[in-house]
Amino acid sequence: MFKGRTCSRLEHFLGRKGCKEQLQFGALLRKTRKMAGLTQEEMAELMHMSRPNISKLERDEIELKAADLIRWAQATDMPQVFASVLCGVDPAILTQFLDQVMNFAQLVGAIIYPVVGGYVDVMQINR
């Protein structure tokens, strides 16, 4: 390997020799788990791991293996998020985007719930 050589994202992900940098997936893992409505305990069960290891993955304290990434994508039902990373999208940018989506969804829910929630309550009373 050449000194100072930059590696592709796929090489980082696969941990190829000569690639000193490591992609940081922790924040993205945490965000997708929370968006899927899973606790660390539930994720640990789905991933066949201990809860402390889930926590360590989310804090980038242990290395993420390709098989674990695939299982995580399946458990959270968000394979498109992780496919984007392999196609070159920075995990930090994806995390920011998912934050914005969650904030928007909460805002829409706060606006719509009083309207729809009130309608549902009236419908239940009329039965």
Short description:
With 127 residues, the chain is an all-alpha fold. Helices cover 68% and strands 0% of the residues.
- Sheet with the most strands, sense and barrel status: none
Distance between the termini: 74 Å
**How much strand?**
under 5%
Number of helices, where a helix is a run of at least 4 consecutive DSSP H or I residues: 7
- The CATH architecture term is Orthogonal Bundle
Global shape: globular
Task: Assign the structural class, choosing from mainly alpha, mainly beta, alpha/beta, alpha+beta, or little secondary structure.
Answer: mainly alpha
Strand and helix order: HHHHHHH
User: What is the CATH homology-level superfamily?
Assistant: lambda repressor-like DNA-binding domains
CATH class: Mainly Alpha
Helix content class: 55-70%
- Low-confidence parts: 1-6
Number of domains: 1
Overall pLDDT score = 77
By CATH, the topology is 434 Repressor (Amino-terminal Domain)
- How many strands appear in the DSSP assignment? 0
Mind telling me the C-alpha Rg?
19 Å
What are the key terms here?
127 residues, mainly alpha, 434 Repressor (Amino-terminal Domain), 0% strand, globular, disordered N terminus
Walkthrough of the structure:
With 127 residues, the chain is an all-alpha fold. The chain has a single domain, classed as Orthogonal Bundle (434 Repressor (Amino-terminal Domain)), CATH 1.10.260.40. The protein is 68% helix and 0% strand. It contains 7 helices and no strands. It is globular and about 45 Å long. It starts with 8 loop residues before the first helix and ends with a helix.
